[in-house]
UniProtKB/TrEMBL annotation:
SUPFAM superfamilies in the record: Homeodomain-like (SSF46689), P-loop containing nucleoside triphosphate hydrolases (SSF52540)
Protein name: Sigma-54 factor interaction domain-containing protein
PROSITE patterns found in the cross-reference section: SIGMA54_INTERACT_1 (PS00675), SIGMA54_INTERACT_2 (PS00676), SIGMA54_INTERACT_4 (PS50045)
Ranges for domain Sigma-54 factor interaction: 26-255
Amino acid sequence: MKGRVISMNRKASESPDAEERLSRLMVGQSPAMSEVMTMIRQVAQYPTTTVLLQGESGTGKDVVAHAIHALSSRSTYPFVDINCAAIPETLLETELFGVEAGAYTDAKASREGYLLRADGGTLFLDEVGSMPLVLQAKLLRFLETRSFRRVGSTKEMHVDLRVISATNVDLEAAVASRAFRDDLFYRLKVITIYLPPLRERLEDIEPLVDYFIQSYNNGSEIPLRIHPDAMALLMRYHWPGNVRELRSVIQRGQILCEDGEIRPEDLPESVRYVEKSDQQRLRELQAQMHLPIEGLDLRAYLAGIEQIFVREALERYQGNQVRAAALLRLSRDQLRYRLPKE
């Protein structure tokens, strides 16, 4: 089968409507997300380039994959995704490459795989780190030749598509432990985009909440809104489940709230009591501290603890001294006095 020919010169991501599509797909105003959006614009212009998306579960790797596809010259062709961890190893090969009739007992008819369905468009391999080694070798061959054979067939088939893969595991560590092929790793990571966790871009929480609220408001008789105290709790939470967890929390609030306003009591306990649990851990730590027999330099010890909290507060707010000082119950001048002298 002859693959479709995709223009290498059409810069879809530079058109005004492409920018509008990107703003609809990607929500965030942090420097980290601005960098991700810049990478999306650049990569979208090269429709054959292989892309690797890395980041914790729930950070939006699938959204970025869709955005790259939507802004590229492949956008009129299919976007096909496959979760490599959700399909048993014995079935993954036939799902990816297809199967020829009679290849095995239950193969009564030929069936196309994900590669053929994605011809002309984009194939998104989610959780690619879960792919078995035998199949990794076959995927590498496809990436190098853009040709493959159905299971049980000797006929070469050709397709033209972009491959985007994603993982929340450390592929370099997997390569070192021989759980992932090094040649495939380098073939997948021609361009790597890292999706930062939500706890590292707290300024994106409010626009994300607004986005989810607007999506749930669609067709609703009572407009959904969020109480400032509830928003303050969302800003203090550490979000282990990232954007996916935030979306679930807002959806829960929509169901439980009265009069269309999400209040603190409508949030999960893990969000409501995070500050109390952190404070409790600090109190427990204080209770365990004792003066060493040999004594200690109290001023230097306390200064070291102080520097830990100052550094963490600044990192939490990307260097914003006003917000960091407020978090530490200090004035801006008091915070500046505690900054390391250069």
